[in-house]
Write a structure and sequence with these properties.
The complex is a heterodimer of chains A (191) and B (563).
Chain A: H1 3-13, H2 21-29, H3 43-56, H4 70-81, H5 84-105, H6 115-126, H7 137-155, H8 158-164, E1 175-179, H9 180-184
Helix pairs in contact in A: 4-7, 5-7, 6-7
Chain B: E1 4-10, H1 14-25, E2 30-33, H2 63-68, H3 70-73, E3 96-97, H4 125-128, H5 130-134, H6 144-158, H7 183-195, E4 202-203, H8 240-250, E5 254-257, E6 260-268, E7 273-281, E8 287-297, H9 301-310, E9 334-335, E10 338-344, E11 350-353, E12 360-362, E13 381-389, H10 394-399, H11 403-408, E14 415-424, E15 432-440, E16 446-451, H12 456-475, E17 479-485, E18 516-517, E19 520-525, H13 540-559
Parallel strand pairs in B: 1-2, 1-8, 2-5, 3-16, 8-19
Antiparallel strand pairs in B: 4-12, 6-7, 7-8, 9-14, 10-14, 10-17, 12-13, 13-14, 15-16, 18-19
Helix pairs in contact in B: 1-8, 1-13, 6-13
Chain lengths: 191, 563
C-alpha cells in the first residue's frame, strides 16, 4: 500500500469536502437500469418501500434514496442480518402500516396509494406531537424502523460515505478538540 | 523433520509470542507450536482496508455467519463481517456450558494478540497482597517489585501510549505520548479531578505506538483508523505477528509449526522432568512427538489447563502438577457491562480527528485504604469510556423526514459519554472447567465444560459501579444520565484466567513463583491460567511481563543445569 500517497491525499482532502456537479454527474453515469429482484420484500412491497424511502431521503442537490439504491440495500440487509423472528415482526408491522394507509386513503389496495397518500402516513407517524392510536402502534413502529434502516443505508452508502460525509480512511493523526467547520466543513465523519 | 529442540513453546498469542522471542534471543533452538493456521503480518490481513459499504450488511454480522459462529457472535460485540475470520468456527470447536460461559477465541498464528482490546495496565500490590490480607484463596508468591522491571521491559518493546500520574493504585510506567482527550472528556476530567479526593480521570493506556517506531516488522505510529482487529498494516498496535514472532524469527533459532494441536506433555518419572509434547497435525490427523529440555505452555488459560489435565501418568493420575486438586478451578474473568451514559449540551462547534484506540480511564478507587474501604464488597473496579458525537439528535427527529432531515443527518449529532466499569471477580474454588471425554472434538480430544458464575461480592460491586458512574456524570453536568447493568456471564470479558494458579506450595497451587509447575520444574505456564487473583485491570500486559520473567529464569536454570 502507498501510505505516503494516502496520507498526502488526506492532508489535502480535509476541510475542502464539497460536492461538485462533476462528481454528481460521474455518479449518475454509473447508474444502470437493470431491474432489481428483491430478496426480502415482495415486488409490490418493494415498490412501496422505495417510495417511502425516497420521501425520507428525497433527491436534493445530492441523490435521493432510489438513485442511491438504498431500497436495494435495505432489502438485502434485512434478508442477511435479521433472524426469522425479527423478519416476522418487521413484516407484520409493514402489513399494519399498509392496512392503515389503505383505510386512511379510502382505497382498495396499497399499490393504488399516491405519493401524497404515503407522505401523509409518514407525517402521521414520524412528526413529533402526533398522537398515535393504540391500533396503529405497530404501524408507527414500522415507520420508525424503516426510517432508521434508511438512515443506516444512507450512511453506509459508498457515494455518501466517500463524497458527502467527511471521509478519512487513514486519518494519520488524532486530535481531541478541533473546530468543526475548519475540520470537516460541518459534516460528520463518514467512518 | 527435526524432533529435538532446546525449548518448545505451545501457543503464539500474547504469551507464546513473548516466550518465543525471549528464548530465541537467548540462543535456545525453539519449536513454536500453534494449533491454528498461519497468519503472516500484513499479507494475511485480507480485510484491513475495507469500508463498511464493501459488505452487503454494512459489516454487521449476518445470519449466515451466525450458523458457524453462534457462540462467537452471540455477544454482538466480538465479531463482525470484516473480522470474523479471526474467530473460531463453533461447530468445529464446540464446548459445553453448565452456566453460560462466553469463550471467545481465534485459532491461528498470533491468537488473540490480533484482536485484543490493547488496554495495558499494571497490577499493583493492592492486587498481589489482597488474597493474603483478606484470607481469600491463596497468596500470590510474588509482589509488584518482582514484576516492575519486567513491566518496564515489555512496555519498552511493545509501545504503550499513556501518561504517568503518580498514584500507587495506578503505577507509573514507560509510556509513549498519550492519546488526546476530547473537549467533553475534559469536562468529566475537571469535574472528577476537582470534585473527588479519591479518584481521577486518566488517559487510557493502550498498546499503540504514538511516536517513533518499535522493533518488529516495520512498526510505526498509529494512523487512527480503528480497524485494529483486522490486523494493522502499520504494525501500530502490538501483536505477536508484527512484533515478537518476527523478532524470534530473525534470530534464526525459531521453528514455527502451525496446524499443530498439542494435547499432552510427556513425562519421565525417573528424571521427574517433562520430555516433550504430543501433537496432532490438525490437517492430516497424524500424531507427532517433539522433545525439548524446557516447555513453555502459553496456549491460553483454558487450552493450557486442558493440556495439563490430559497429561496423566502414574505420577499424575489427575493431570500434570495437580497434587493440589486446584487445576481447572478458580476460573476468573472481569465482570463488566455495567455503568452509565449521558448527553452533554454545548461544544456544538467542536469535533475531533482520528478514530482513537482509547479514551479515558478511571483507576480503581475502592478498598485502597482509609475512607475508600467498603463494607459491602471486597476489591475494586475501574472504568473505561469516552465522549463522542453521535449521528442522531433530537433536533433531527423533529424534522422527521425529508430534505431538511437529510441535510441534518450529514452533520455530527449531540455529544454523549459512556463510562463502563470493569470489576474484579474473586477466585472461587467451585468456579471451574472440566474435561468431557464423552463429547470429543473432531481430533478425538475431550471438549471443555464450564461451570462458573459471579456471586454476592461481584453483584454488590456492580450496584456501586452503576451508582458511581451515574453520580460522576451527573455531577459533571451531563443530561439524561442513565445507568445500566446488562446481563453479564463469566467469559464475556474475554479475560478468562486462574485455572493453574501460582502459589507458595504444591498442596494449594499448580505453579511456583517463577511459573514452573511445582512438581515438574521444566514446564512453565505463563498465560492467564497462572493468575492467583484477577485484579480489576486488563491482564495481557501482566502475561507478557510474567512470560519474559519466566523465560529469563528458565535460561538461567538451564545454564546452571537445574532443568
Amino acid at each position: 500500500m502507498d501510505r505516503r500517497k494516502a496520507l498526502k491525499n488526506i492532508g489535502t482532502g480535509i476541510g475542502t469536502i464539497a460536492l461538485t456537479p462533476a462528481v454528481v454527474s460521474l455518479f449518475h453515469s454509473c447508474q444502470t437500469d437493470v431491474s432489481y429482484s428483491s430478496v426480502f420484500f415482495t415486488e409490490n412491497d418493494f415498490k412501496i418501500v422505495s417510495t417511502l424511502m425516497e420521501l425520507i431521503i428525497p433527491k436534493t442537490d445530492i441523490p435521493g434514496a432510489i438513485e442511491l439504491k438504498l431500497p436495494e440495500f435495505v432489502d438485502a440487509y434485512i434478508d442477511a442480518v435479521y433472524d426469522e423472528k425479527r423478519k416476522g415482526r418487521f413484516s407484520s408491522g409493514l402489513e399494519e402500516f399498509l392496512a392503515a394507509g389503505i383505510k386512511d386513503a379510502g382505497k382498495e389496495k396499497a399499490i393504488h396509494l399516491s405519493i401524497t397518500d404515503w407522505d401523509s402516513q409518514l407525517a402521521k407517524y414520524l412528526k413529533l406531537g402526533n398522537e398515535i392510536l393504540e391500533d396503529e402502534k405497530q404501524a408507527a413502529k414500522f415507520a420508525g424502523e424503516l426510517r432508521s434502516l434508511t438512515v443506516n443505508a444512507f450512511k453506509t452508502n459508498e457515494f455518501i460515505g466517500e463524497n458527502v460525509l467527511a471521509y478519512a480512511p487513514i486519518p494519520g493523526k488524532q486530535e481531541g478538540c478541533v473546530d468543526l467547520m475548519e475540520t470537516t466543513g460541518g459534516k460528520a465523519w463518514s467512518l | 523433520m527435526e524432533t529435538n529442540y532446546d525449548a518448545i513453546v505451545v501457543g503464539t498469542g500474547i504469551s507464546g509470542g513473548w516466550a518465543a522471542k525471549e528464548l530465541c534471543e537467548k540462543g535456545l533452538k525453539t519449536l513454536v507450536l500453534e494449533r491454528g493456521r498461519m497468519v503472516k503480518h500484513v499479507e494475511d490481513y485480507p480485510t484491513m482496508h475495507n469500508d463498511p459499504w464493501d459488505y452487503k450488511s454494512g459489516d454487521v454480522i449476518t445470519q449466515e455467519t451466525r450458523k458457524t459462529q453462534k457462540k462467537q457472535s452471540r455477544t454482538n460485540y466480538t465479531t463482525n463481517e470484516s473480522g470474523k475470520h479471526f474467530f473460531v468456527n463453533d461447530i468445529e470447536h464446540p464446548y459445553n456450558e453448565v452456566n453460560r460461559f462466553d469463550w471467545m477465541r481465534g485459532y491461528h498464528v498470533g491468537g488473540r494478540s490480533l484482536m485484543w482490546g490493547r488496554q495495558s495496565y499494571r497490577l499493583t500490590d493492592f492486587d498481589f497482597s489482597a488474597n493474603l490480607k483478606e484470607g481469600i484463596a491463596v497468596d500470590w508468591p510474588i509482589r509488584y517489585k518482582d514484576l516492575s522491571t519486567w513491566y518496564n521491559y515489555v512496555e519498552e518493546f511493545i509501545g504503550v501510549s499513556g501518561k504517568n500520574v503518580g498514584l500507587p493504585q495506578f503505577p507509573d510506567g514507560n509510556y509513549l505520548k498519550p492519546l488526546e482527550l476530547n473537549c467533553v472528556d475534559e469536562v468529566l476530567k475537571s469535574s472528577v479531578d476537582g470534585g473527588y479526593s479519591d479518584r481521577i480521570v486518566a488517559n487510557a493506556r493502550v498498546a499503540h505506538i504514538t511516536e517513533g517506531t518499535k522493533p518488529g516488522l516495520g512498526r510505526s505510529s498509529c494512523q487512527y483508523r480503528d480497524r485494529c482487529a483486522r490486523g494493522c498494516p502499520f504494525g501500530a498496535y502490538f501483536s505477536s505477528n508484527s512484533s515478537t514472532l518476527p523478532t524470534a524469527e530473525a534470530t534464526g533459532n525459531m521453528t514455527l509449526r502451525p496446524n499443530s494441536v498439542v494435547h499432552e506433555i510427556m513425562y519421565d518419572a525417573d528424571s521427574k522432568r517433562a520430555t516433550g509434547v504430543r501433537v496432532i497435525d490438525s490437517e492430516t490427523k497424524e500424531i507427532y512427538e517433539f522433545k525439548a529440555k524446557v516447555i513453555f505452555l502459553c496456549a491460553s488459560t483454558v487450552a493450557s489447563t486442558s493440556i495439563l489435565m490430559q497429561s496423566t501418568s502414574d505420577s499424575f493420575p489427575n493431570g500434570m502438577g495437580n497434587a493440589s486438586g486446584e487445576l481447572g478451578h478458580n476460573i476468573m474473568d472481569h465482570h463488566f457491562q455495567v455503568g452509565a451514559y449521558g448527553r452533554y449540551d454545548g461544544f456544538e462547534d467542536k469535533y475531533y480527528t482520528g478514530r482513537r484506540p482509547g479514551g479515558i480511564y478511571i483507576p480503581r478507587f475502592r478498598n485502597i485504604g482509609g475512607d475508600t474501604n467498603q463494607k459491602e464488597f471486597l476489591r475494586g473496579y475501574g472504568y473505561q469510556g469516552g465522549a463522542s458525537r453521535g449521528s442522531w439528535t433530537d433536533t433531527v427527529s423533529e424534522m422527521a423526514y425529508g430534505a431538511d432531515f437529510k441535510e441534518e443527518i450529514t452533520k455530527p449529532g449531540d455529544w454523549s459519554m459512556g463510562i463502563n466499569g470493569f470489576g474484579e471477580i474473586l477466585p472461587y474454588h467451585e468456579n471451574k472447567m472440566i474435561l468431557d471425554y464423552d463429547n470429543l472434538d473432531k481430533w478425538g480430544l475431550p471438549t471443555v465444560t464450564f461451570d462458573a458464575t459471579i456471586k454476592e461480592n461481584e453483584k454488590k460491586m456492580r450496584i456501586d459501579m452503576k451508582q458511581q458512574a451515574i453520580e460522576m456524570l451527573e455531577k459533571a453536568g451531563f443530561k439524561d444520565v442513565k445507568g445500566y447493568d446488562n446481563d453479564y456471564a463469566i467469559g464475556l470479558g474475554i479475560h478468562e484466567m486462574g485455572t493453574a494458579r501460582m502459589g507458595l506450595d504444591r498442596e494449594t497451587s499448580v505453579l511456583n513463583a517463577n511459573n514452573q509447575v511445582h512438581d515438574v520444574p521444566n514446564v512453565y505456564v505463563t498465560d492467564g491460567s497462572a493468575m492467583t487473583s484477577a485484579s480489576n485491570v486488563n491482564p495481557s500486559l501482566t502475561y507478557m511481563a510474567l512470560t519474559a520473567r519466566a523465560a529469563n529464569h528458565a535460561v538461567n536454570e538451564l545454564k546452571k543445569m537445574n532443568l
